[in-house]
Amino acid sequence: MREYLKMENMLNPPADGTKEAEISTTEHFEATRYTINADTGDVTTNTFPNTINSKFINNFDFPTINEAYRGKRYCYAYGLSAYAYSRTALVKKNVCNPEEDKVWYTENHYLSEMHFSTTTRR
C-alpha cells in the first residue's frame, strides 16, 4: 500500500512549513493552456499568474470544465489540488481573468475530483 493512503498518515499529516508538507501531487508542474492553430498546426503554451497567492491555484489534478461548454469558449476550469496527500483543496481556475480564481480548503476535509450533473426540470 502506498504510504500516503495509510490511515496514520492521513490522521497525522506533516506539519505546515515542513518540506514534506510542500510535496504536491503535481510535483509542482503548473496548469498550462495549450492553444493549437488549426490552420498552421502551431501550438502555443501559456501558464497563469498566481494573483491570489495560493499554493493550490496553479497546481491541480483532474482538471475539468462544465460539459455544457465543451467545444465553446469558456473561462472556468475546475480541479483538485493536493499537498502531502492529506491537504486537499477544490480549485476554480479562471483562465480568462486569474484575479477571479477561487480555492476552497479546510483542514481535515478530504476531497475528490469534481463532476457536473445536469439539472432536470419537471
Brief overview:
The chain is mainly beta and 122 residues long. The chain has one helix at residues 7-11; strands spanning 32-36, 43-47, 61-64, 76-83, 87-94, 102-105. The protein has 1 helix and 6 strands.
Structural description of this entry:
The chain is mainly beta and 122 residues long. Helices cover 4% and strands 28% of the residues. The strands form two sheets. It has a four-stranded antiparallel beta sheet with strand order 3-4-5-6, with no helix packed on it. It has a two-stranded antiparallel ribbon with strand order 1-2. A hairpin with a 3-residue loop joins strand 4 and strand 5. The N and C termini lie far apart (47 Å). The mean pLDDT is 86.
Q: Main traits of this protein?
A:
122 residues, mainly beta, 4-stranded antiparallel β-sheet, two-stranded antiparallel sheet, 6 strands, 4% helix, globular
Number of helices: 1
Distance between the termini: 47 Å
Low-confidence spans: none
Structural class: mainly beta
Question: In order across it, which strands form the biggest sheet?
Answer: 3-4-5-6
